[in-house]
Amino acid sequence: MAKSIMPRAMTQLPNSAPDSQPDTLPLAASIVVSLAVAATIGLADVAYVLSVAGGEIGARFIAVLPIFFLAAFAVAQIAFWTLRALVGALMPLDMRGHAVSTGLTFLLAGLLHYAESSGVQRLLYEQAAAAAASCPQGLACTPLPGAEALQGAEVAARRAAAERGLLNAALFAQLMRDPDAGVRATLARRADLPQELLERMAGDRHAEVRAAAASSPRLSDAMLNTLAIDRDEGVRLAVARNRNAPPTALALLAPTRSTELREWVAAHPRASEPVLARLLDGSGDRAERLAQQRLGR
Description:
The chain has helices at residues 2-16, 27-53, 59-88, 95-129, 147-151, 155-164, 169-176, 181-188, 195-201, 207-214, 221-227, 233-241, 247-253, 259-267, 273-278, 286-295. The protein is mainly α.
């Protein structure tokens, strides 16, 4: 009887032992953790960008926000899986191993964020330093020169400052009175020239400066009408080439004998029917033919 009981008890011992736990978590757990970590870092980066923007969010800004999120998400993914591989070579990838990988990923993201914020702060500081100055859009401006240094500079240096220099109100006024007409003409072509100074430069004594002002799309209709009867043909051509020239200015230009001027008026997008009718003088030139086409005759 005892012999029959012992084998049965011995056969039950292995079944009563608890199952051994695996040393590593499944790959699916790593994927879930990596997605959660990357999404958190991506949202944190977007929140930082929004804070730097100061709440001024436009349509173009909203359109680029996903780029910041995706960039941070991708970097976090690469960092997590790289660190996971390194941690896995040193310890089992169990809960503790994933915690270490996650912590190192956040640490690396924090370091990258610090470097990014330092660069942004430096850019904001440079923008604040130049807040009182002006620079033409799309140009890499030179540093703000001193008024005395610019006054004693060569003509080439003054022209360079007038074209792409970082200027404040005092330097605008100084360059507007520059003795060299080329410097003044260069200044008149700047897109950021204050409207009041642009109007004043349209009355400059030198035709080159008046022509430069006449080419500006920001010049008032009244001043364009005045320049349309300027004694210099180059100034009148600049008015005709200005796509914002009003029909009143074009009407003043139409009776001219200049073939080039007539052609510019005939092709001008703001030439009204009365303006085009003025070009029908029986000359049979290209301007008249173009005017007839536009009038449907």
